[in-house]
Amino acid sequence: MRSEKGTLYSLVTKYYVFFAAAVLLLAFLVVKFTENAIEQANYTPNVKSFISNDQLIKNEKYDRLNIKKVLGEKSYFEVLDENAEVIYSSDGSVKNTYSPEELEFIPSDRWNSYYYLDTIMAEDGSIRGYALHKYATVNDREGELYTLSGVAILDSDKNVVYSDSGMDIDHLSEREFNILYGSDTDTYLQKYEYVTNNGESRTMLIHQDYSNTSLNDTFRRIYLTAIFSFLFVFAIFVIIFVFRTALAVRKPITMLQNAMDDLGEGNRDVAITYSGPKEFVQIMDSFNDMTSKLAEAEREKEGLEKERQKILADISHDLKTPITVIQGYSKAVADGLVPEEEQKKYLETINRKADNLSELINSFYEYSKLEHPEFSLYKRECDICEYFREYLANKYSELEIAGYEMEIDIPEEKITKSIDDAQLKRVFENIINNSVKSNPKGTKIFAAMKQSGENVIIYLGDDGVGVPEVIQDEIFKPFVVGEKARTSGKGTGLGLSIAKLIVEAHGGTIRLMDDSESGYSTIFEIIL
Fold first, then answer.
1. 86: which strand partners?
2. 105 exposure class (CB count in 10 Å sphere: 0-12, 13-18, 19+)
3. Rounded to an integer, what distance in angstroms lies between the CA atom of residue 519 and that of residue 179?
4. For residue 158, which phi and psi values (nearest 5 degrees)?
5. CA torsion angle 153 159 161 165 (round to 10)
6. How confident is the model at residue 487 (pLDDT cuts 50, 70, 90)?
7. How confident is the model at residue 3 (pLDDT cuts 50, 70, 90)?
8. Distance of alpha carbon 481 from alpha carbon 307, whole angstroms
9. What's the pLDDT tens digit per position in 353-386?
């Protein structure tokens, strides 16, 4: 079972694209965050971190408030009562006084009202006057809205020449003007109004350090925060990218390792089901094919072992029969147990059994020689039609004397093939001898040849009793013979095995044809 999901290259590329897109998005967000933070540091000083010490402030424990640490080295604060009198200053060297009108123009930490002073220039570049804008939170149908609530126009001496209902002032003092215009460049002034735990109204004026040094420290913190934030999230992205990539590679390798361990422990029924990159699917397929072939090889090995044992048993049987006869007859003659007129008959039997034994040993030798890895044919170019014709002509008289007929069909043409004529003759001899041994006199031996493309096809067989069905599928295996041949000693079961080895050494094939194909009971087809 397999399922391909692209290649490993496409998988890693996909992960890399996602990784790159995530890094780009992260970089964009960090840049936007940094820009906003710098803009806030430039234009909107934040005192919330300082006034968050609400309990200390309302308990009036001002000496425990460290404003320099929170808002900068030059920062300090003052506490005013309800009459605008300074009752506490964190910087004893500063002696400021304020009027209730001046406090009006100082922006609150809540930014519920804010004044903005704009210079009006004349055409000659001189200051013609000022425009004072008041922004405040107002209520309308949609709820609270921060908007422009009043406007006043001042001349160059800061006298009010026009004011709407939202701006009830006649003149700006120099102190009020400085508060609005921000002439004090080192600090930024904000107010925080609150009620103490004793129920008294207080106003805290916070002078935040707004010098270049303070801003540089703020910018440095912003940049360092942005850099470390980027590196931290980037490291997380790298870990995820590496983990995902490693998982895609490690998972199939682990599966393969476990399967190999199972295989090493002797479990041959091992198969891997994997879904993933094409390369790993192909590896798993190759592994599954390998295990399948190993299992098949094991089965073949078991079959070969059984066949080897059978061969040994057959060899023992085929050798034991003539040896037993030779031993028994020779001992009987030697011991004088055989009458003199019977001794010749016994000796002829011993001689015949010795010939059978010699033939059997020669067959074993030929079979083992053909199976040897160093065996080779001695081929030569010849007219195979003429070669086959000469062989059958020499065999004709022998078969006729033995009481067998022949039917021959060889084309009158020259077909050149490279063959080992001695070995190929052995093939013909073995097949024809089988026909003679297995069939009664009067059986017709059939021999034919034809050309089919580059191949030469030879047919050899007979119209005798045929091959028993039980051994047809195993007829080319060694020591496979009919029961009559086995008990009569007329066959070793190696003839067709030797024929098969010789034909295959020529690069050809040999098979037993079905009688419906040939019209004869036994026909062997040899293709060279």
1. 80
2. buried
3. 126
4. 70, 25
5. 70
6. very low
7. low
8. 14
9. 888 788 778 777 777 777 777 778 889 999 999 9
Identify residue 300 by its one-letter amino acid code.
Answer: E
Nearest to 445 by CA among 520, 345, 510, 502: 520
Half-sphere exposure of 340 (CA within 13 A, CB side): 0
Which 3-state string (H, E, C) describes 54-96?
HHHHHCCCHHHCCHHHHHCCCCEEEEECCCCCEEEECCCCCCC
Measure the CA dihedral 175/208/35/226, to 10°: 170
Cα–Cα distance for residue pair 212/218, rounded to 1 Å: 10
Distance separating alpha carbons of residues 271 and 292, to the nearest angstrom: 9
222-241: b or e for each residue (b if 16 or more CB lie within 10 Å)? beeebeeebeebbeebeeeb
Q: Are strands 444-452 and 405-409 parallel, antiparallel or unpaired?
A: parallel
**Cα–Cα dist 488/358, whole Å:** 16
Residue 465 neighbours by CB distance under 10 Å: 15
The Cα-based distances of 134 to 46, 171, 314, 471, 500 in angstroms read 21, 15, 121, 116, 114
The three-class DSSP label of residue 47 is coil
501 closest CA partner among 402, 430, 412 = 430
Query: Could you give the residue ranges of the DSSP H alpha helices within 372-416?
Result: 384-402
Record the tokens describing residue 77, joined without a space: 């604060």
Is pLDDT above 80 for 507?
A: yes
The crossing angle, in degrees rounded to 10, of helices 340-371 and 495-505 is 30
Backbone phi, then psi, for 124, in 5-degree steps? -85, 5
User: What's the helix, strand, coil split of the chain in %, to 5?
Assistant: 50, 20, 25
Which amino acid type is present at position 130? Y
Q: What is the DSSP string of 151-205?
A: EEEEETT-BEEEE-TT---SB--HHHHHHHHT--TTEEEEEEEEE-TTS-EEEEE
Report the SS3 class of residue 451. strand
Contacts of 67 (CB under 8 A, 6+ apart): 50, 75, 76, 77, 90, 206
Report how far apart the first and last C-alpha atoms of the chain are (Å, whole number): 42
Which residues are CB-neighbours of 234 under 8 A, at least 6 positions away?
A: 23, 26
- pLDDT digits 0-9 by tens, 56-90: 999 999 999 988 887 778 889 999 999 999 999 99
Rounded distance, CA 245 to CA 283, Å? Answer: 18
